[in-house]
Sequence to fold (446 residues):
Amino acid sequence: MLTNPVVISILVMTALCLLRFNILLSILVSALVAGLIYHGGFAGVGAFFDALTATTSTLITGMKGNLETSLSYILLGALAAAIANTNLTAILINAVSKALAKTSTYFALIIASIACLSQNLIPVHIAFIPILIPPLLPLMNRLGIDRRAVACALTFGLKAPYVSLSVGFGLIFHGIIKKELANNGVEVQMSEISSVMWIGGLSMLVGLLLAVFIFYRKRRDYAHTKFESSEEQEAQLAASLEMTKKEWAVLGGAVVAFGVQIYTESMPLGALLGLLVMIVLGGIEYRKIDKIMDSGLAMMGFIAFIMLVAAGFGSVLRESGGIEQLVGFASEVVGGKIGGAILMLAIGLLVTMGIGTSFGTIPIIAAIYVPFSLSLGFSPAAIILLVGIAAALGDAGSPASDSTLGPTSGLNADGQHNHIYDTCVPTFIFFNIPLLIGGVIGAMIL
Fold:
């Protein structure tokens, strides 16, 4: 097993990611390592370059598997940029803050609900956090709310919807699962994926409730923030926020994007039609279209390219022939289904912690997990759950993940929230552990 190209390339990729090497380059280097071993690239200079050429060709050909996903990310980024260019989010926040001021008990749960909308109804991803959270810090300080609970709430809202629901970013996530399972010999429908992935969402909900109502429910004091404002200033801000033609047009475009993606199960088509509606109705000024598209590309472009390269990496792993050897070896040592389930989820946790994206993890692990799961006798439903949760594991708790970087960007606006100890550690404990338990139990039952 020490010469298996899959094992070595995964170890190289994990090591590079943990050393904070660029994620995109880490995947590319790891793919080349797998190809060099498979093609015998260490036999001489000529063999070395022949192996690199063959591997690069396989990588590029395999990248086409995530073209739809990458397009979805870029168009969703443009949608998010268009929404952020209006007062729509600020109006929602102003209305919500009035309700939040009346209670501390359910503060974190309301924040989690708002975060869920950012993945489905108004797919702005983490773009809402710098707008929503900093103005609420003074209120949180007055109520003595532990920001670790809010960090868990935000991460829950950024993850649980796409893990469990085939809407918004969840449609992309479930679509990648469907495609990669098919690439490895298991044909499933989108309805089958959503019918089991709710187990992941329920597991995360358990973790959220434990964090909010048990571990972080006690008062925690913070110093006054620079975001403190007088009642007069708050009143002036509220008065300046109103729904104009521009806000209504953008809201209409968001609703169209949401409806089309549900009807057609096509996220790119929904996002594109939503953008066109915004342009026609005046939500996006014609002279600012290029600026909006550039902003969307800047927001989501890097993630889109990670998706492409991850699909190519998965293609290289499948061609290397090391998967069959790895599956045969692992089947003999894991000790049956439960051991196999734990091993797969643990490896998924490690890989996603390094890469920092659940979406980019699926093509890599599916190439190994699907044949491994079939060899252990898991049903298609169990395979869906194992691949989906193995990919989702580690997104919470990873220092490089949007699901942790986003919450920290808002909660640390005044310098009183530590990224590792106040965001990554709590979200790792309260989401990865329940996901691991739920994944093992679910896979054994399905």
The two ends are 31 Å apart (CA to CA). The mean pLDDT is 78. Residues 5-445 form one domain. The chain is about 75% helix and 0% strand.
